[in-house]
Each structure stands twice: as structure tokens, then as C-alpha cells.
Amino acid sequence: MEIAWLGNWSGVLVGVVETLVVVVASYLVLKIARRQIRDVGERAKLPPELVSLFDSVIKFAICFVAFYLILVIWDVTSIIMPLIAGASVLALAIGLASKDIISNAISGIFILLDKPFKIGSIIEVRGVKGEVIEIGLRVTKIRTEEGAIATIPNTILSSDIVKKRKDQ
């Protein structure tokens, strides 16, 4: 009886140690990756929004891998995998339903990288003319000549003709 108990507890102890190793290693990898993203962003003069997006993606990926490794350590993948498959189907449905948001975000990334205009530029798109006051991942805000704020989805700015004043 004692040997079975000892063997069982030693297996639990090994699982706890392996889990701690995964958590600590993931934490260290995440710290290093976030520092690298920040440094590369500063050197490449990337917009803070884009650096934040990369940071979030890396954080999610590292946490996902760590979570999966912990599931493998505790041998519960056979129980959890159907739930993950169901969640994947749900994520696909949500992704398809939010394709406009995703499209705007991708367009925003390209606008931030290509820099066809900047904050302070006077632009005109689809009859809306004004000064760019904010460039976000999803939308760009323009203060019109009348003083109104126009919010334009980034997919429009990346797919339509945008007129920019010559002296800018």
C-alpha cells in the first residue's frame, strides 16, 4: 500500500515540477520577447499601436503553448481536445462574423507601416476633406473643415483614392 501511495505522489510531484518549469520558462521567454518587440519597434520607429499589437499576439501565442504543454504534462489532452475543437469552431464563426473588423485592423497595420499620410496631413477621401487627427488600427479620424470629426474605416482608406495636399 505504501509503495503505491509513494509512486502516485512521486508522479504528482514530477507533474508539479514540470508545470513550474513550463510556467517559469514561459514567463522568461515572454519577458525576453516583449523586450525584443519593444526594442525593434523603437529602432524601426514603428507606431506604438503596431508594437502593442505584436506584443499581444506574442503574449497570446506563448500563453497558448504553455497551457497546451501543461495539459500534456497532466495527460488531460484527451479530455480537453474536444473542448478545444469546439472552441475552434466557435472562433471560426466569430472570425467570419467580424471579418470587417479584422479587415480594418489589417488595413490599419498597412497604413501605419506604409505611412501614406500622417497625423496633421490634410486628406480627402470619398468627399470628406480634413486634417488627420488620429490613425488607429480600425479607423482613422479626420477633423473636417467644418470642425466635425469624421471616422473613416481603414479599409476605405486602403482601397480608395486618397488625395493628400501637395505640401505635406
The main sheet orders its strands as 4-3-2-1-5
Structural class: alpha+beta
| Average pLDDT score | 88
Number of helices: 5
Run of helices and strands: HHHHEEEEHE
What general form does the structure show? Answer: elongated
Q: Which percent band covers the strand fraction?
A: 5-15%
Low-confidence residue ranges: 1-6
User: Level of helix content?
Assistant: 55-70%
Give the tally of β-strands.
5
Rg on CA atoms, Å: 24 Å
Number of domains: 2
Largest sheet: 5 strands, antiparallel
Distance between the termini: 82 Å
Describe this structure as you would to a colleague:
The chain has helices at residues 2-43, 48-73, 77-97, 99-114, 154-159; strands at residues 122-125, 128-135, 139-144, 149-153, 163-164. By secondary structure, it is of the alpha+beta class. It has two domains: 2-97; 113-164, SH3 type barrels, CATH 2.30.30.60. It has a five-stranded antiparallel β-sheet.
